[in-house]
Write the structure tokens for this entry.
Amino acid sequence: MSFPKPFYRWRPHPWHGLSSGPNPPEVVLAYIELTPFDRVKYEIDKETGYLRVDRPHRASSVPPNLYGFIPKTFCGKRVAALSDKTEVADGDPLDICVISERPISRPEVILNAKVVGGLQMIDHGEADDKIIAILANDNLYAHINDVSELPEVYVERLRHYFSTYKLIPGQKTVVEVSEAYGREHAYNVIKAAIADYGETFGGE
């Protein structure tokens, strides 16, 4: 017998087999790799699509929010062109941080996220932007439309986490995290990452 659409006979690859969202760049799909309860850095295995243990956190900081990536995005030349500090990007899917009032403790979940801004991060000389978003139907934060409307402490925690999550005592940091940018620039980064993905891997 044939399988009804959109039934998946096998689990789709989270990066390549899911859509970028219901209405990108405004509302995107986020695949969650890390939660605020994780002291180990997990990362999608690009070959299999399963979560792989990357490394335990050396520093004491933990992710302040849900953290993952937007499917069918790729940080390539278009994403790099939006940075004023580098000419190359990291070649990974576009990262996203999602704020939720209720604690979500499970990774490997998907959710719809409303984009409100982002952080420009340079990691080993490569653009590694972090989109900031709100759980689309969140009871407390769904009304927020731009990162400027968030309490400053949220952005401070994100900047601190990404500034320290690769920190090795006694060694010079290889990460630079700039001030947060607003929704419109975040939209441009997402559109660039979707276009970079299409050029690199092809369309539907």
The first strand starts at residue 27 and ends at 34. The chain has one domain: 27-201. The domain at 27-201 is CATH 3.90.80.10 (Inorganic Pyrophosphatase).
